[in-house]
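for the recovery benchmark. tokens below, seq after
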């Protein structure tokens, strides 16, 4: 009864090693781009939903984001929802009305980036996470029965479909990178060759309230 020769055994081992290498390569590097793409799609869908809600209801509607500086650590830069908003006639301050959707978290290890966290923008669009918190909301916190009361940044759509907040001119940018919180410190886990965070961007037109996505490059 014949057995395998040494050459045959080594050939099989080499083939298995190659296949394993291809599998790891296919799973590893592509996980980040896939997660960022999914996060972009989720943000675009939330913005579109807020615009549609404002137009159909006739009430200003906000997409609220938990910023990087406040709120439960597990939600910072990762959670978003929709609120009906009311603007104070005297001060112009925004007040949260009914919450229209449950809090949604971005997929995988994706996280929203501020300019301070390294999110650059060659088009000089206003970073939505750079604005001062404008809306007081309640954010669920793991392990606690009561939600945390947090001031968060937001984007407000008017019944015309246009964006009224944050104030300014030009487009608004929402930058999605990869990272995680460790002991109150944000660790960026994917960077460009230049060292800046690798990030995809959702751009929002103030005039039309329409969003479009742009995939980041590695330069």
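predicted aa per position
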């Amino acid at each position: 009864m014949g057995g395998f020769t040494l050459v045959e055994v080594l050939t099989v081992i080499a083939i298995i090693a190659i296949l394993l290498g291809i599998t790891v390569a296919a799973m590893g590097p592509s996980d980040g781009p896939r997660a960022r793409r999914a996060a972009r799609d989720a943000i675009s869908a939330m913005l579109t939903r807020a615009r549609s809600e404002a137009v159909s209801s006739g009430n200003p509607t906000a997409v609220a984001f938990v910023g990087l500086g406040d709120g439960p650590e597990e939600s910072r830069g990762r959670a978003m929802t929709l609120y009906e908003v009311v603007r104070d006639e005297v001060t112009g301050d925004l007040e949260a009305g009914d919450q229209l959707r449950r809090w949604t978290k971005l997929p995988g290890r994706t996280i929203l980036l501020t300019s301070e966290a390294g999110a650059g923008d060659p088009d000089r669009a206003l970073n939505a996470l750079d604005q001062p918190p404008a809306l007081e909301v309640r954010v669920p916190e793991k392990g606690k029965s009561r939600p945390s009361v947090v001031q968060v940044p937001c984007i407000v759509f008017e019944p015309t479909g246009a964006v009224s907040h944050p104030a300014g001119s030009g487009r608004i940018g929402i930058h999605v990178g990869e990272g995680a919180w460790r002991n109150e410190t944000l660790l960026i886990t994917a960077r460009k060759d230049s060292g800046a965070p690798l990030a995809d961007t959702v751009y929002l037109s103030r005039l039309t309230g329409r969003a479009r996505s742009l995939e980041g490059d590695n330069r």
